[in-house]
Amino acid sequence: MAYKTRQAQIIFDYIKQNAHSHLTADDIADGVRAQGVSKTTVYRQLERLLNEGKIRKYIPQEGKSACFQYAEETCHSHFHLKCTECNCLFHLECEYLDEIKSHILEHHLFDIDNSRTVFYGLCRNCAEKKKGDTK
């Protein structure tokens, strides 16, 4: 295991405390700056945490900054919903999708990585706006 510094622990704790958020490296750097952690240290520690499997990395949209999220076993597995209008990324914990994942594994011998699975469509707010625009 890599040598752990106080700054590395601050970064990991910040990500863990925001386990239900997708944080960019800049978000994390802004969140830990007051504790004396530099942006360079954040980037270095993100790579280490990724390699150790303690966090996950997402690319929410081509050309956008990567997002990071706490990935310990105690953190619920979930799918993602991505609004094609406002680009918001939402977590979705759904037993029905877990059943689909199991079905695909059992019947099609393909194990879906739900941490990387994204369903695209319109969120409620954008759908309502579009509906209102057509009136």
Report the CATH architecture of the largest domain: Orthogonal Bundle
Order of helices and strands: HEHHEEEEHEH
Low-pLDDT segments, ≥5 res: none
Fraction in beta strands: 15-25%
The mean pLDDT is: 84
Count of the domains: 2
Percent of residues in helices: 40-55%
CATH class of the largest domain: Mainly Alpha
Which labels suit this protein?
135 residues; alpha+beta; Arc Repressor Mutant, subunit A; Dna Ligase, domain 1; 2 domains; three-stranded antiparallel sheet; three-stranded mixed sheet; 6 strands
Provide a descriptive summary of the structure in words:
- The protein has helices at 6-17, 25-32, 39-51, 95-108, 124-133, and strands spanning 23-24, 55-58, 67-70, 79-83, 89-92, 118-121.
- A hairpin with a 5-residue loop joins strand 4 and strand 5.
- Helix 1 crosses helix 2 (25-32).
- The longest helix has 14 residues, at 95-108.
- The chain is built from five helices and six strands, in the order H-E-H-H-E-E-E-E-H-E-H.
- It folds into two domains: 1-75, Winged helix-like DNA-binding domain superfamily/Winged helix DNA-binding domain (Arc Repressor Mutant, subunit A); 77-135, Dna Ligase, domain 1 (2-Layer Sandwich), CATH 3.30.1490.190.
- The strands form two sheets. The protein has a three-stranded antiparallel sheet with strand order 1-3-2.
- It has 135 residues and is of the alpha+beta class.
